[in-house]
Design brief:
Elements: E1 2-11, H1 18-21, H2 25-29, H3 37-40, E2 46-49, E3 55-60, E4 68-75, H4 87-94, E5 98-99, E6 103-106, H5 115-119, H6 121-133, H7 137-149, H8 167-172, H9 175-181, E7 190-196, H10 200-211, E8 233-241, E9 246-254, H11 263-273, E10 275-277, H12 289-296, E11 302-309, E12 314-323, H13 327-339, H14 347-363, H15 368-382, H16 388-397, H17 400-410, E13 416-422, H18 430-435
Parallel strand pairs: 3-7, 8-13
Antiparallel strand pairs: 1-8, 2-3, 4-6, 4-7, 5-6, 9-12, 9-13, 10-11, 11-12
């Protein structure tokens, strides 16, 4: 038995001024922070820019030992820019890379060409179709969450596009569709990062050889911006299978872009909410209050808060897998934990979350490959390399007022988007969840 329903409530585009969304590097550099010497004295990346705007950065070992790694990030391509659905994933696969919603990541310097995709299109489409058939429900619901939250995005520029397309759209992709993706890529869309062992000068020469023929920027568009602001729509999509005894749900609020001042407070809020999985081995011994309640009452087999940022928008929320007969109880405990962020948490929780966020940041740079990907992401999204020292300082500078202000703006009495699949007969309706996005206080 299968039922598909979709509810649309309110179209509420958020207009932010460019000044409010701009990251202040001067302010960040003046923040004082007590950080370990291995962080404060960590080497910084060397950055060069080619004549056509290609950015080349390197963070090589001082002793010249070990292997060398290269990370290449291409902006201006990715699922957001698909017109059919799946062509960016096919292009990335043909080049040995990974597709994102606003970029493609490559593990080596290679010429930008759709020839490999065109010559092996049927095989690439078949492989992608098999991958889509095996996607987890969590991945599917994150796609559906984006689809319903950004359902009014224009063709060729929509965050609502599925990350790797659908079975139907992938089958319809042609070689011309894949080739068209590279038509708008220019030098400013390319970031090359070298880590491990290597020479910056050699890396620049290799980047010049591979990408030097690309045109320069065609306009004055700032890093991290797109032509149109993605409008967040309060809505939900529910795929009901009464034969399932579990359900997977993804709940999201209108979050922050990469350059939005709320991005860091929202990252801290996601650590305050935390994550839990029965497979972790921790049992009920989790630190975050929301996850403690979920674990104590056995409301879900897994739950995780997230804060996703894009060039002009973001999503803040959680994804969970739970028994079909505990969805009402799950939301009963989850929503107050979201809303209480707008009213403040204990000093102990706040301090723990800061430590957890610092740990996550440091872990994201653990290893040469990971460090290269992070540097490429920073340059591609905010236009510069942010040192570990500065990131630690930004976390230290966060106050409870920052968290409450961000939560008030994002969660408190705000519309949400939701995607759910499985045995969802006990999942509260949209209005119930919307009503529990705020507290009644007198």
């Amino acid at each position: 038995f299968f039922i598909l329903t979709m509810t649309m409530l309110l179209v509420r585009p958020v207009v932010r001024s460019s000044a409010a969304r701009r990251m202040s590097t001067a302010a960040a550099s003046t923040v004082s922070s007590d950080v370990p010497s291995y962080v404060s004295e960590a080497p910084v990346a060397t950055v060069s820019t080619l004549g056509n705007g290609v950015t080349v950065a390197s963070l090589y070992n001082a002793d010249g030992s070990g292997s060398g790694y290269t990370s290449v990030r291409l902006s201006g391509v990715g699922s957001r820019f698909d017109k059919v659905g799946g062509e960016s994933a096919i292009l990335a696969s043909s080049m040995g890379g990974v597709v994102g919603r606003e970029h493609i990541s490559l593990s080596s310097i290679s010429a930008l060409s759709a020839d490999a995709a065109a010559s092996n299109l049927d095989a690439l489409k078949g492989n992608l179709a098999c991958k889509l058939a095996g996607l987890s429900y969590e991945s599917q619901m994150m796609d559906h969450l984006h689809s319903t939250a950004y359902q009014n995005g224009p063709a060729g520029n929509s965050l609502g596009n599925a990350l790797e397309g659908s079975a139907e759209s992938v089958a319809a992709v042609s070689a011309d569709d894949v080739a068209a993706l590279l038509g708008g890529v220019n030098g400013t869309n390319v970031v090359v990062v070298g880590t491990g062992n290597g020479s910056h000068e050699k890396l620049v020469a290799e980047a010049e050889k591979a990408y030097g023929s690309l045109s320069g920027a065609s306009g004055s568009k700032a890093v991290g911006s797109v032509a149109d602001k993605s409008a967040f729509i309060g809505s939900d999509v529910r795929i009901r299978y009464d034969s399932h005894n579990t359900a997977t749900i993804a709940l999201g609020f209108d979050g922050a872009s990469w350059t939005d001042p709320k991005a860091m407070p929202l990252a801290l809020m996601s650590t305050l909410l935390g994550s839990f999985s029965k497979a972790d081995g921790l049992g009920k011994n989790v630190a975050a209050a929301m996850c403690q309640e979920v674990a104590d009452h056995e409301l879900a087999s897994s739950i995780s808060a997230f804060s996703l940022s894009y060039s002009d928008a973001g999503l803040f929320g959680m994804v969970a897998t739970a028994p079909d007969n505990k969805l009402d109880d799950l939301l009963w405990y989850v929503m107050p934990n979201f809303v209480r962020l707008a009213h403040g948490v204990s000093d102990e929780e706040f301090a723990r979350a800061k430590v957890a966020l610092k740990t996550q940041i440091l872990a994201s740079f653990d290893g040469d490959i990971a460090a290269g990907e992070q540097i490429a992401q920073q340059i591609g999204t905010v236009g510069r390399v942010i040192s570990l020292n500065e990131m630690m300082a930004k976390v230290d500078a966060l106050t409870m007022d920052d968290v409450k202000a961000a939560a008030n703006d994002v969660i408190n009495d705000q519309d949400h988007a939701l995607a759910a699949i499985g045995g969802i007969h006990e999942l509260p309706d949209y209005n119930w969840i919307r009503r529990h996005s705020y507290m009644l206080r007198y």
